[in-house]
User: Fold this.
Amino acid sequence: MGSKGLLIVISGPSGTGKGTVCRKLLKECKDLHLSVSVTTRQPRPGEIDGKSYFFVDKEKFMEMKERNQFLEYAEVYGNYYGTPKEYVLNMLNSGRDVLLEIDIQGALQVKETFRDGVFIFVVPPSMEELKNRIIKRGSETQETFKTRFNSAFNELEYCVQYNYVVINDSVVKACEKIKAIITAERCKVRRNMDLFAALRGGMQKT
Ligand code: ADP
Ligand code: 5GP
Assistant:
């Protein structure tokens, strides 16, 4: 396990600010690599294909699913989202740390196969603020807003499945906390067994 990269999974209710926090994190941590998901959702203004998501139609998504190309996938708010398996496995096997920003259903699937992953749940400082953030983003109709906001209440119950909770009161503070979590996880003894072997093997006792 020591030479493998860390798999960091971030989830939380829609509008909490996961995307915003992850973008800052990726800017500041050059050794962290985002897994770009595949989705059947329509791009929002400013979203770039291949960077924000790989935007595909339902037929293509189902074809990828049939070919077992997803590490996990889920239907979220009427659209499909999936994590490309090959990219994540290649990165982890070459010792690089990978960040997944996925929903709870997906995170639970990943947890089944990657018990060693780091599961972080990001929450808003209050439900009132969550409401404001979803509205501020301006990406939802009244109907989709309702679905996302109401789902948030159920989603909060899943926080016990995660290893860490981070309140996104300020993007800077949330980002610092996630960086601290990553640092601590990298320092875990069980993740550094190669280091001990190298230290012991490097010199004879005097
Ligand atoms: P998510 O990815 O969780 O759905 P976004 O990153 O799209 O959420 O953020 C939703 C909205 O909230 C955006 O308009 C974003 O600018 C804003 N936002 C994110 N984090 C904060 C914060 N800490 N304080 C205030 N606004 C925030
Ligand atoms: P949005 O449409 O706001 O970009 O994302 C909606 C939800 O889908 C968010 O909770 C986001 O974390 C989740 N999501 C994004 N990519 C994936 C993915 O690859 N798999 C799963 N399961 N969820 C995803």
User: Anything to note?
Assistant: The first strand starts at residue 7 and ends at 11. DSSP finds eight helices and nine strands in the chain. Residues 171-186 form the longest helix (16 residues).
